[in-house]
Every structure is written in C-alpha cells, then in structure tokens.
Amino acid sequence: MADVSLVVTPRGGFGKGPARQLRRSGLVPAVFHGDGVGAEGKAIAVPLAPLSLALIKPMAILEVQVDGRNIKAAPRDVQRHPVSHEVEHLEIVELSESQVREREVAAVAAIEAEVEAARLSAIESRRLAAIAAETEAKEAAAAAAAAAAAAPVAGTTESAATESAAGEGGSD
Asked: Are 3 and 73 contacting, i.e. CB atoms less than 8 angstroms apart?
C-alpha cells in the first residue's frame, strides 16, 4: 500500500539555475535510484504538494511513476531550506517487496506508539490534576486550622490574653 502516488518527469538541466526554475514552478529536483538506473541515478522532478503531504508520515512509501513503470520507493535524503523548511532536493530509492512490508510494519508500530504515548499522557495529566486538587484541599484545611487557632477564644478575659502575650515576649 503506497501512501502517495507521484508522477515524476525527467529533468534535463543541472545546477543552480535550472533547479531554481523547477522550484518556482512547484517542482522539486530529485534523483531516483533503483533497478535499471545507473549508479548515478536518474534526474527527475517531483511535484511539491503531494510530496510534502507524503513526507509528514513516518516511514512513507511512495508509488513513483518512472518511465511508465509504477515503482514502490522511499525518500532517502531530504534537503530542506534552513528558514522556510521547503523541500529543496530529494533522493528516492526503490524498495523491494520485503522492504515495503518492513516499512509498513514500522509505520504501524510508530503510529501505535504515538497513540500509546498520548493515552499515557492523558492518564498522567489526570493523575497530576488529582494530586494538585488533593494538595490544594490539604493547604486549605491547614489555613483554616491556622486561622481558627489565631482567633481569640470566646470567654477568655483580657487579663489572661495579656498575660500570655507578656509571657511570650519576656523570654528573650
């Protein structure tokens, strides 16, 4: 199962000028490596919009149409602009059937790990909220007890209150 299907076109010009022209027209210069292609690879141009969507997913599998053949491939080296983070260049490598299965299993495992992390994060958030509420209740009870202890007790005489105050201050 391919994540995104890309129809690529061969590109003729090399260097900074032709690469900039491709980027202005919404394409990304790329090199395809696979069976039937020399060691240098095949220079191609890939549409930016579907490529950007495919690169969001971890372990993406691309179905690339090269020379009329549909080939399962994966991005190998993605070069991005340092400020805008737009894809500037890409290397795509052909995948064997076993590599496709491995990537699919790894992608499912990565998604399951993200779901589990989100679930644990929610549990941890609820636990921390309960601890905060319990701590707040204890602090409120302690403050109420301190306020009750500081309030004058009804029925005491003024002389007893002054004697206790005098007794506290005289022991320096």
From this structure: no
Helix (H) or strand (E) holding 44: strand 42-47
Task: Yes or no: say if 26 and 9 are a contact pair by the CB < 8 Å rule.
Answer: no
Extract the tokens encoding 130. Answer: 């309960």
Q: CA dihedral defined by 108, 109, 110, 114, rounded to 10 degrees?
A: 100
Tokens at 31, concatenated: 């090199």
Mean pLDDT of the chain: 77
pTM: predicted TM-score of the whole model, two decimal places: 0.54
Torsion (CA) 59, 60, 65, 66 in degrees, nearest 10: -40
Task: Give the dihedral of Cα atoms 83, 87, 90, 94; nearest 10 deg.
Answer: 140
Confidence of residue 87 (pLDDT cuts 50, 70, 90): confident
Residue 65, both tokens:
């149409």
Q: How far is CA 40 from CA 23, 37, 120, in A?
A: 22, 8, 47
CA-CA distance, 61 to 46, in Å (whole number)?
A: 15
Beta bridge partners of 92: 32, 75
Residues contacting 65, CB < 8 A, separation 6+:
5, 6, 7, 8, 71
Q: Which residues of 97-119 are buried (b: 16+ CB within 10 A; e: fewer)?
A: eeebeebeeebeeeeeeeeeeee
